[in-house]
Amino acid sequence: MKTTLHLITASACIFLLSCSSYAKKKFKLERKFNFESKEDFKKYIYKNRLFPEDNILYIDTSSLYGFFVDKMKGGSAGVYLGTYLNDSSFIKSGSFLEENTSCKGRVEDEILRNVNLKEIPDSIVKKGKKMSSYKLYHLSNNKLFDINKHSKRHKVFLMYAHAFGTYYDSMYKEVLSIQQKNSSEVGVFIVVADPVQMLK
Fold first, then answer.
1. CB atoms within 10 A of CB 160
2. What mean pLDDT is predicted for residues 31-58?
C-alpha cells in the first residue's frame, strides 16, 4: 500500500520533475514526506498558515485510489480539483486552464472567473461522481467531511502535496484572498495528496 501511495503522489507532481535544478532548490521541490505522526504534520501545516485549519482534508485509504483516478483523468497533474456547486455538479474548466493545468496564474484566473459569474448556465456545468462518495476527513479533528453541510455557492477544491515544496504557496494565498473577498459565496478546501492516513 505504501508503494501505491508514493506512486500516486509522484504522479500528482510529475510535472515538477522536469523543472531545472535551480527551481528544485529554490522551491524545495520533491521534498520527502517523512513525518512520524499526524500531529507532526498538523504542526507543520499550521505553522506555515497557508490554509484555514478546518478546511484541510485528507483521504481515507479506501478512497485513495479512486479519488486520484477520477480527479486526474486525462493525465492531469494540476493542483486545481474543481469548483463545485453541490455534491456532484462542478463548473467545467476553461480551455485556457486545460492547456496547462499546473500553471499558478491560470488556476487563479479560472477560480476568479468562476467566482465572478453572476449566473451559471447549464452549458458550463458538469456532473461527476459525488464528492461525498469519497471518504475525506478533516485534518483538524479526523471527522468525516460532508460537502452538503457547506452552503457556500462555490466550493473550490485544491490539492496539496509536500513534494510541491513552496512552488504553489503564492497561489494558495491568492486563492484564499479571493475567498476572503467573497466569503459569503466561496469556500476553499485543501485535499492533502500525501499519505496522512498512514500516520498515527
1. 21
2. 90
